[in-house]
Predict the 3D structure of the following.
Amino acid sequence: MGLLKSKKILFIDNFCFDRDIILTVIESQFENQIVEVDSGEEAIKILTNDSEFALIICDFGFSDAGENAFYSFLKKQGNKVSVILINNSDIGNYSEFSNFYKDNALNDSFSRPIMERDIIDKVTLALGLNVSAEAGAKKYFKVNIARFIEVNSNKMDIFIKLSEDKFIKVVDKNNEYDKGAIAKYLNRNITFFYLTNEGLVSYLAQVAAYSAAGAIGQLDIDMDLQLTSVEQIHECVQALGINESTVKLATSVVALALVTIESNKKLEYVYKLLKSGTNYISLHAQLTSYIACSLASKMEWGTTPVLNSLTFAALFQNISLSNSKHAMIQNIDSDTFKNISEDEQRLIRNHVFKSVEMLQDLPKFNEDAHKAIINHHERPNGKGFPRGLMAAQIPPLCCVFILASQFAHELIVRGSSRDKIQSIINDFEKIYSHGNFDRPFYEFKKMFYE
Ligand SMILES: [Fe+2]
């Protein structure tokens, strides 16, 4: 085991959105040196001259013989090195890979969206290490200094390693973050900074945003999607004081989520609806994602998978309703609800189920997003719908989502001036200050009083 720990990891990538996030997670958790190459030919050259590799991670989007030759090369050598494919969706088209999972018992693949936990667990196993023995003991996490300087803009404690168990703090999280001052370490032969767990969580969220922004650039998405073009949302975000990195992250995740439905014929009208940005459903969806991400970060739940789930739920909570008039109804005891036809009432009562049904096949749609959509009209006092759950029956992450969704609605209906926000908070105080809503609501209020 000790031997594999000291062996190297080869990362082959010619074009991979997840590159920075995968590398950041691996370098933060494992001591193994990572060598990067950008083609299968280069990989063969390195593997021919160096037998110190325990694991190869590669983006399997290979279409030419040169790329596949790298795997044939490994097979000829007896598959001594394990391989994790970043994307195995085309694997069936290439005969070289026909026995991929049997060639080496430790071979594996990631499926998108790639979660941090997934990376850690799969790399641990592929290196032949023991998952439970490796977990939980670390206090400092290393990050590549060049990538950190490029990506980070948040205040955090930054350490440098002096010896095996000695770390010295070089930047304090209470001071202003000065990129220029930090960049001077680049010239001092230092390869890594070290972060606490709290710093790492904040940094990984930024790496995810950075990767997503890169992916958006590569996919040539229409940047009109950006909320900056929607004045009403922009004003709200400013009035709420949501910080820049959260806005950047939510914007990227929103755009990426839209990409996942762009090519889906079934969801074509949803894409157009959300993209237009001028109707209630689109405004409410995007505003909810900002507020939910900001609140989750305040609660220190702001990991990439959580923010992805919240954004996904925010965007698609009402997609089974094409009429904004229906999506705006929050209360089934209201006169507005009582005065519409029975068919319309049924549509509203069932829209949470219909929305998740429409999303079942999407790759990024997970359990948390599912629950958040199903519960987005539940209220702590049991007066919500469709199930009329009580506060204690609603999972904590759904409470965050419900608060965000309801607050986004009120902001659109009432406006986002200081007075209006204060009156919304006063009204929320009566409803949301107990049960599983207690802590999310406490943090929610702090967003405005800090
Ligand atoms: Fe809804």
Observations:
- Strands lie at 8-12, 34-37, 53-58, 82-85, 108-109, 141-144, 158-163, 166-171, 192-195.
- Confidence is low (pLDDT under 50) at residues 216-230.
- The domain at 226-449 is CATH 1.10.3210 (Hypothetical protein af1432).
- The chain has three domains: 1-133, 138-217, 226-449.
